[in-house]
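Encode chain A's predicted structure.
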Amino acid sequence: MKSVVVTGASTGIGWGCVKVLTERGFHVFGSVRKQADADRLKTEFGDKFTPLLFDITDAAAVRRGAEQVAAAIGNDTLGGLVNNAGIAVPGPMLFVDIDEFRHQLEVNVVGQVIATQAFAPLLGADSSRNGDRGRIVMISSVGGRNASPFVGPYNASKFALEGLSESLRRELMLYGIDVIVVAPGAVATPIWDKADAVDVSRYANTPYAPALAKVKDYMIANGRKGFPPEKIGEAVYTALTARKPKVRYTVTPDPIQNLIVHTLPKRIVDRMIAARLGLKLI
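Encoded structure for chain A:
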Protein backbone atom coordinates (compact mmCIF):
# COMPACT_ATOMS: atom_id res chain seq x y z
CA MET A 1 0.00 0.00 0.00
CA LYS A 2 1.51 3.33 -1.11
CA SER A 3 1.48 6.17 1.39
CA VAL A 4 0.63 9.83 0.74
CA VAL A 5 0.80 12.94 2.91
CA VAL A 6 -2.07 15.44 2.63
CA THR A 7 -1.72 18.74 4.46
CA GLY A 8 -4.78 20.58 5.73
CA ALA A 9 -6.84 17.39 5.87
CA SER A 10 -9.50 18.37 8.43
CA THR A 11 -12.19 19.67 6.04
CA GLY A 12 -12.88 20.73 2.46
CA ILE A 13 -10.48 19.77 -0.30
CA GLY A 14 -8.06 18.09 2.10
CA TRP A 15 -10.84 15.89 3.47
CA GLY A 16 -11.98 15.12 -0.09
CA CYS A 17 -8.45 14.01 -0.99
CA VAL A 18 -8.26 11.75 2.07
CA LYS A 19 -11.61 10.17 1.22
CA VAL A 20 -10.78 9.43 -2.41
CA LEU A 21 -7.20 8.29 -1.81
CA THR A 22 -8.09 5.93 1.04
CA GLU A 23 -10.89 4.45 -1.07
CA ARG A 24 -8.39 3.87 -3.89
CA GLY A 25 -5.96 1.93 -1.74
CA PHE A 26 -3.56 4.58 -0.40
CA HIS A 27 -2.61 5.02 3.21
CA VAL A 28 -2.94 8.72 3.98
CA PHE A 29 -1.02 10.71 6.56
CA GLY A 30 -3.13 13.84 7.01
CA SER A 31 -2.05 16.98 8.80
CA VAL A 32 -4.44 18.76 11.16
CA ARG A 33 -3.92 21.43 13.79
CA LYS A 34 -6.33 20.14 16.45
CA GLN A 35 -6.43 16.83 18.28
CA ALA A 36 -10.23 16.79 17.96
CA ASP A 37 -9.90 16.79 14.15
CA ALA A 38 -7.27 14.04 14.33
CA ASP A 39 -9.63 11.89 16.41
CA ARG A 40 -12.60 12.56 14.13
CA LEU A 41 -10.73 11.68 10.94
CA LYS A 42 -9.21 8.58 12.52
CA THR A 43 -12.69 7.39 13.44
CA GLU A 44 -14.00 8.16 9.95
CA PHE A 45 -11.20 6.60 7.90
CA GLY A 46 -9.85 3.95 10.26
CA ASP A 47 -6.58 2.14 9.69
CA LYS A 48 -6.06 3.75 6.28
CA PHE A 49 -5.49 7.13 7.92
CA THR A 50 -2.80 8.41 10.27
CA PRO A 51 -3.11 11.96 11.65
CA LEU A 52 -0.14 14.32 11.83
CA LEU A 53 -0.46 17.23 14.24
CA PHE A 54 1.22 20.38 12.95
CA ASP A 55 0.70 23.89 11.70
CA ILE A 56 2.12 24.24 8.20
CA THR A 57 4.04 27.39 9.21
CA ASP A 58 5.85 25.66 12.10
CA ALA A 59 8.97 24.20 10.47
CA ALA A 60 10.03 22.23 13.54
CA ALA A 61 6.59 20.66 13.92
CA VAL A 62 6.46 19.78 10.21
CA ARG A 63 9.86 18.11 10.49
CA ARG A 64 8.56 16.06 13.41
CA GLY A 65 5.64 15.03 11.23
CA ALA A 66 8.06 13.94 8.50
CA GLU A 67 9.99 11.90 11.07
CA GLN A 68 6.74 10.20 12.10
CA VAL A 69 6.02 9.29 8.47
CA ALA A 70 9.61 8.08 7.96
CA ALA A 71 9.30 5.75 10.95
CA ALA A 72 6.05 4.34 9.58
CA ILE A 73 7.19 3.66 6.00
CA GLY A 74 10.65 2.34 6.87
CA ASN A 75 13.06 2.54 3.95
CA ASP A 76 10.36 2.78 1.29
CA THR A 77 9.59 5.94 -0.66
CA LEU A 78 6.55 8.08 0.04
CA GLY A 79 4.11 7.95 -2.86
CA GLY A 80 3.10 11.59 -2.77
CA LEU A 81 2.83 14.91 -0.96
CA VAL A 82 -0.37 16.90 -1.47
CA ASN A 83 0.31 20.51 -0.45
CA ASN A 84 -3.24 21.60 0.29
CA ALA A 85 -3.20 23.56 3.56
CA GLY A 86 -4.17 27.18 2.98
CA ILE A 87 -6.29 30.16 3.98
CA ALA A 88 -8.03 33.02 2.17
CA VAL A 89 -7.72 36.62 3.37
CA PRO A 90 -10.28 38.99 1.78
CA GLY A 91 -10.25 42.75 1.46
CA PRO A 92 -9.33 45.65 -0.83
CA MET A 93 -5.58 45.92 -1.21
CA LEU A 94 -5.44 49.60 -0.24
CA PHE A 95 -6.95 48.83 3.17
CA VAL A 96 -6.10 45.21 3.97
CA ASP A 97 -4.28 44.69 7.26
CA ILE A 98 -0.59 44.15 6.53
CA ASP A 99 -0.20 41.50 9.22
CA GLU A 100 -3.09 39.56 7.68
CA PHE A 101 -1.52 39.90 4.23
CA ARG A 102 1.80 38.66 5.59
CA HIS A 103 0.05 35.70 7.26
CA GLN A 104 -1.65 34.85 3.96
CA LEU A 105 1.70 34.48 2.24
CA GLU A 106 3.23 32.70 5.22
CA VAL A 107 0.59 29.97 5.10
CA ASN A 108 -0.04 29.61 1.38
CA VAL A 109 3.50 30.04 0.08
CA VAL A 110 6.13 29.69 2.81
CA GLY A 111 4.23 26.81 4.39
CA GLN A 112 4.30 24.87 1.12
CA VAL A 113 8.08 25.26 0.95
CA ILE A 114 8.42 24.10 4.56
CA ALA A 115 6.39 20.96 3.85
CA THR A 116 8.19 20.28 0.57
CA GLN A 117 11.62 20.53 2.15
CA ALA A 118 10.59 18.28 5.05
CA PHE A 119 9.04 15.49 2.96
CA ALA A 120 11.20 15.60 -0.22
CA PRO A 121 13.77 13.09 1.13
CA LEU A 122 10.94 10.59 1.69
CA LEU A 123 9.70 11.13 -1.88
CA GLY A 124 13.09 10.05 -3.24
CA ALA A 125 15.44 13.01 -2.84
CA ASP A 126 17.15 10.59 -0.48
CA SER A 127 18.34 8.07 -3.08
CA SER A 128 18.90 5.36 -0.46
CA ARG A 129 15.15 4.77 -0.26
CA ASN A 130 13.51 1.88 -2.08
CA GLY A 131 10.69 2.24 -4.61
CA ASP A 132 9.44 4.61 -7.27
CA ARG A 133 9.94 8.31 -6.72
CA GLY A 134 6.91 10.08 -5.32
CA ARG A 135 5.09 13.10 -6.70
CA ILE A 136 4.17 16.49 -5.28
CA VAL A 137 0.68 17.87 -5.94
CA MET A 138 0.25 21.58 -5.32
CA ILE A 139 -3.33 22.71 -4.71
CA SER A 140 -3.54 26.08 -6.42
CA SER A 141 -6.72 27.69 -7.77
CA VAL A 142 -8.21 29.14 -10.93
CA GLY A 143 -7.33 32.31 -9.01
CA GLY A 144 -3.68 31.38 -9.48
CA ARG A 145 -3.85 32.67 -13.04
CA ASN A 146 -6.85 35.02 -13.03
CA ALA A 147 -7.17 37.45 -10.14
CA SER A 148 -10.39 38.89 -8.78
CA PRO A 149 -11.00 42.10 -6.86
CA PHE A 150 -11.02 41.92 -3.06
CA VAL A 151 -9.19 38.60 -2.78
CA GLY A 152 -5.84 40.07 -3.76
CA PRO A 153 -3.91 38.49 -0.86
CA TYR A 154 -5.24 35.04 -1.79
CA ASN A 155 -4.61 35.59 -5.51
CA ALA A 156 -1.08 36.81 -4.78
CA SER A 157 -0.37 33.63 -2.82
CA LYS A 158 -1.74 31.36 -5.56
CA PHE A 159 0.09 33.21 -8.37
CA ALA A 160 3.24 32.73 -6.29
CA LEU A 161 2.45 29.04 -5.81
CA GLU A 162 2.12 28.56 -9.57
CA GLY A 163 5.60 30.03 -10.15
CA LEU A 164 7.03 28.11 -7.22
CA SER A 165 5.60 24.88 -8.63
CA GLU A 166 7.10 25.46 -12.06
CA SER A 167 10.55 26.17 -10.67
CA LEU A 168 10.32 23.21 -8.34
CA ARG A 169 9.17 20.85 -11.10
CA ARG A 170 12.25 21.67 -13.14
CA GLU A 171 14.62 21.50 -10.19
CA LEU A 172 13.29 18.15 -8.99
CA MET A 173 13.88 16.50 -12.36
CA LEU A 174 17.29 15.79 -10.83
CA TYR A 175 15.60 13.40 -8.40
CA GLY A 176 12.83 12.11 -10.65
CA ILE A 177 10.17 13.75 -8.47
CA ASP A 178 7.34 15.28 -10.50
CA VAL A 179 5.36 18.38 -9.43
CA ILE A 180 1.77 18.74 -10.62
CA VAL A 181 -0.62 21.63 -10.01
CA VAL A 182 -4.33 21.02 -9.37
CA ALA A 183 -6.33 24.24 -9.75
CA PRO A 184 -9.89 24.07 -8.41
CA GLY A 185 -12.64 26.51 -9.21
CA ALA A 186 -15.60 26.81 -6.87
CA VAL A 187 -15.79 23.91 -4.43
CA ALA A 188 -18.71 23.31 -2.06
CA THR A 189 -16.86 23.22 1.27
CA PRO A 190 -17.37 24.68 4.78
CA ILE A 191 -15.17 27.64 3.76
CA TRP A 192 -18.30 29.21 2.23
CA ASP A 193 -20.16 29.01 5.53
CA LYS A 194 -17.19 30.82 7.04
CA ALA A 195 -17.33 33.36 4.21
CA ASP A 196 -20.91 34.17 5.21
CA ALA A 197 -19.53 35.26 8.58
CA VAL A 198 -16.71 37.37 7.14
CA ASP A 199 -17.02 40.87 8.53
CA VAL A 200 -16.58 43.45 5.79
CA SER A 201 -17.84 46.25 8.02
CA ARG A 202 -14.24 47.38 8.59
CA TYR A 203 -14.37 48.65 5.01
CA ALA A 204 -17.76 50.35 5.37
CA ASN A 205 -16.21 53.81 5.23
CA THR A 206 -14.23 53.09 2.05
CA PRO A 207 -15.41 53.56 -1.54
CA TYR A 208 -15.34 49.78 -1.92
CA ALA A 209 -18.20 48.97 0.49
CA PRO A 210 -21.01 48.46 -2.10
CA ALA A 211 -18.83 46.33 -4.39
CA LEU A 212 -17.55 44.25 -1.48
CA ALA A 213 -21.10 43.32 -0.50
CA LYS A 214 -21.79 42.13 -4.06
CA VAL A 215 -18.60 40.06 -4.16
CA LYS A 216 -19.35 38.43 -0.82
CA ASP A 217 -22.86 37.42 -1.93
CA TYR A 218 -21.55 36.10 -5.25
CA MET A 219 -18.77 34.04 -3.69
CA ILE A 220 -21.08 32.43 -1.14
CA ALA A 221 -23.74 31.56 -3.75
CA ASN A 222 -21.18 30.35 -6.29
CA GLY A 223 -19.24 28.29 -3.76
CA ARG A 224 -22.29 26.46 -2.47
CA LYS A 225 -23.10 25.43 -6.05
CA GLY A 226 -19.53 24.26 -6.64
CA PHE A 227 -18.07 20.80 -6.99
CA PRO A 228 -18.01 18.49 -3.97
CA PRO A 229 -14.48 18.22 -2.51
CA GLU A 230 -14.25 14.60 -3.66
CA LYS A 231 -14.13 15.91 -7.24
CA ILE A 232 -10.82 17.58 -6.45
CA GLY A 233 -9.73 14.38 -4.73
CA GLU A 234 -10.30 12.54 -8.02
CA ALA A 235 -8.03 15.02 -9.83
CA VAL A 236 -5.37 14.58 -7.16
CA TYR A 237 -5.60 10.80 -7.55
CA THR A 238 -5.07 11.20 -11.30
CA ALA A 239 -2.09 13.50 -10.72
CA LEU A 240 -0.52 10.93 -8.40
CA THR A 241 -1.13 7.86 -10.55
CA ALA A 242 -1.30 8.80 -14.25
CA ARG A 243 1.53 7.31 -16.30
CA LYS A 244 2.09 10.66 -18.00
CA PRO A 245 0.40 13.31 -15.87
CA LYS A 246 -0.28 16.82 -17.09
CA VAL A 247 1.62 19.61 -15.39
CA ARG A 248 -1.67 21.27 -14.41
CA TYR A 249 -5.26 20.12 -13.94
CA THR A 250 -8.02 22.73 -13.81
CA VAL A 251 -11.19 21.48 -12.10
CA THR A 252 -14.05 23.96 -12.28
CA PRO A 253 -17.85 23.66 -12.51
CA ASP A 254 -17.87 26.50 -15.08
CA PRO A 255 -15.12 25.73 -17.63
CA ILE A 256 -16.67 28.04 -20.26
CA GLN A 257 -16.42 31.06 -17.98
CA ASN A 258 -12.87 30.07 -17.11
CA LEU A 259 -12.00 29.79 -20.80
CA ILE A 260 -13.55 33.17 -21.57
CA VAL A 261 -11.58 34.88 -18.81
CA HIS A 262 -8.40 33.23 -20.09
CA THR A 263 -9.08 34.12 -23.73
CA LEU A 264 -10.45 37.65 -23.71
CA PRO A 265 -8.03 40.60 -23.55
CA LYS A 266 -7.41 41.65 -19.97
CA ARG A 267 -8.80 45.15 -20.50
CA ILE A 268 -12.13 43.72 -21.63
CA VAL A 269 -12.30 41.45 -18.57
CA ASP A 270 -11.46 44.48 -16.40
CA ARG A 271 -14.42 46.39 -17.84
CA MET A 272 -16.77 43.42 -17.42
CA ILE A 273 -15.84 43.06 -13.75
CA ALA A 274 -16.06 46.80 -13.13
CA ALA A 275 -19.55 46.93 -14.68
CA ARG A 276 -20.77 43.98 -12.61
CA LEU A 277 -19.45 45.40 -9.32
CA GLY A 278 -20.11 49.08 -9.97
CA LEU A 279 -16.42 50.03 -9.81
CA LYS A 280 -16.73 53.49 -11.36
CA LEU A 281 -14.42 56.46 -11.18
CA ILE A 282 -15.16 58.57 -8.11
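The mean pLDDT is 92.
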